[in-house]
Structures are given as structure tokens and as C-alpha cells.
Amino acid sequence: MKKNQLLAILTLATAPAFLHAQTTSYSDIVGYQKVSVPSGLSTAGFPLLNSDLVKTSASSVSGDAVTLSGESNVGAKLTSGEPYYVEVYSGALKGDRFDVNTAATITAANGTVVLDSASANNTYPVASIASQLNSATVALRKHITIEQVQAMSSTPLVGNNSAAADQIQFYDSTATAYVGYFLRGDGVTWRKVGTTATANKTPIPPGTGVFISKQGSAVELTASGSVRQNDFAQPYVPGLQLKAPAYPIEISPSGIGATAANSWTGNNSAASADQIQVYNPITSAYDGYFLRGDGTTWRKVGTTTTVTSSNIASSGQGYFVSRNSANSDAILLNPVAQ
């Protein structure tokens, strides 16, 4: 069972006019979201989802193969080379996500989806899911990929075969380093910096923030898709990690359950406390926020201003979390009542 069920009491973002916290819904909520990307460096997050290819119950699990009720050939619904994931909508693993082995699923050509047990994006060990996933409702969908970002842009992103290109940068918490992808001169092809392989299908996993390094003029990204109507696993590791909203809703410390009761570390010294750090493209610096020693109150670093319930990051923005300890079981509860 997952521990630490964090109730997300979140406030609405300006962009999606379709979502109301604690409303009742019986069908998919579809909307759009606009994110301003200034010239230079800024962060982004993409909480809206690609459409579900399958949403049904998992009738059985054998190793990394999950049999989906009512399906005879799951692989026929996939495209070779595209990244997919399964999200769990009910049962003990509600909110967890597992990457799909696309090639193996296509080869199987039956009613199973084959999970990628080695993926770092998985929020729970695949080897431990057998008894917990049976009969659970799951959804299969394609990841948001970096090539989709070009289609979102109000004017084409800047491609170049040298360093003078727009980039999307991930933060690797394990290596404590940035991993950059740049747009080639054809305006279509993305490559990982330092390689020659095409990287268009690189996923931006749910809840993962990215930096965008923008050459030339500012643009506006317009993302469209479905709003998640499900709990969301949000695991944390020690140190820095670049997160993003799971829902098109602004982020506050209280909204993500950032309290000592949910294994966050508080301290009256900012340097010893867990922090949320939001990059400010205007100042080219970070606005830091830390959990106080009482375990519930958040302050902006260097001030006495309380920001516990304040919106400190937008729904389309990435933000760093700096943690003293891991919490692999953190869950944000769905803010949209079913």
C-alpha cells in the first residue's frame, strides 16, 4: 500500500477555464494551457495529457506483462519508437505509473501490455505489482515528447546545427547535471547535446519540469489535452529534483502537502530545511522557500513572509524541490471529485 496520502488542496490556474476544484465529473475534462516562454532561460511543465489509448481493468499480471480486459492486440494500438506509459486509476497502486516496452508490446500482438521494468520513470517496482494490480483500472497513453513542444509554439522555435539553437534541458538528479536537447536547423529534428542520434521521441514524463533555453524572441506555448482525474504518485529523492504540476493548477507548499507530517524536513535555518526553488527569468535567479521548524509553516528565504498557502509556481512552470530525505510513497490526491 502507498503511504502518505497527501490531500492536494490546490488553487486554480488562470489558463484552463474548465477545471473547478472539488467539482463532480463523470467524463474527461479537456482544456488548453498557455505558457509564456521569454527569451533566455525559463522553466516549463506540461500537466495536460495525450488521449488515453486504452482505459480498462488489468485482469492478470505475469512478470512484466499486464493483461488488459477486453483487448486482443494492444500492440496494434502503438506506434514503433513512441514512448508510452500506464497509469493506475484504482486499487492499492492508484496514482502509480509504469513505462511501456513498446517494441515488446507490439511483438506480443495480444491482450497484454509489456512494462519496462528498468525505466527510471516507474513510480513503483514492476517486480512487486502482481498481487496489487489485479482488477485495478489502468490507462495506457503516449508520453508528451519534446517534438510536441515545437507544435505548441506560437512561432517556430529556433533551430540551428550549432549552439545557437533553442534547447530543452532536463535535470538529472542522480548525476546532479543538466541534460540538453537542441533543435536542428531543419526545425524538426531534436538531438541530445553531444550526440548525433535523433531524439524527437524523448519523453517529458508526468510531473517532470524542464528548462527551455530560448534564442531570439519570446514565444507562447499552447498545450491542449485531457486533465488528469486521478491520484498522482509524486516520489522524491534526496537532493535536488525538477518537478512540475500534475494538474493544470498553481502550486503552493500546502497544496503539495509539504509538511513534516508528510516526511518533509523543517528547520528554522533555511540551509537545513527542505526547500522549493522557483527560477525567476526576470532576475535570472531563484526564489527560495523553506519549511520552518514547526513542520507546517513555509517562508520565503531571507524574509519573514509566510507563503504556506501562497501560489509560488504557475501551473505551466517547473520548480526545484530540495529534500533532505527520500519519500518514494508520496501521493497527491485528485483535486477533482469523481
Task: Please characterize this protein's 3D structure.
This protein has three helices and 23 strands. The strands form six sheets. It has a six-stranded antiparallel β-sheet with strand order 8-7-10-5-6-9. A five-stranded antiparallel β-sheet has the order 4-14-11-12-13, with no helix packed on it. Strand 19 and strand 20 form a beta hairpin.
Secondary structure elements and pairings:
Layout: E1 5-6, E2 11-12, E3 29-37, E4 40-44, E5 52-62, E6 65-68, E7 84-88, E8 97-99, H1 102-108, E9 112-114, H2 130-133, E10 137-142, H3 146-152, E11 167-172, E12 177-183, E13 190-192, E14 210-214, E15 219-227, E16 232-233, E17 239-243, E18 249-250, E19 275-280, E20 285-291, E21 298-300, E22 319-323, E23 331-332
Parallel strand pairs: 1-23
Antiparallel strand pairs: 2-18, 3-15, 4-14, 5-6, 5-10, 6-9, 7-8, 7-10, 11-12, 11-14, 12-13, 16-23, 17-22, 19-20, 19-22, 20-21
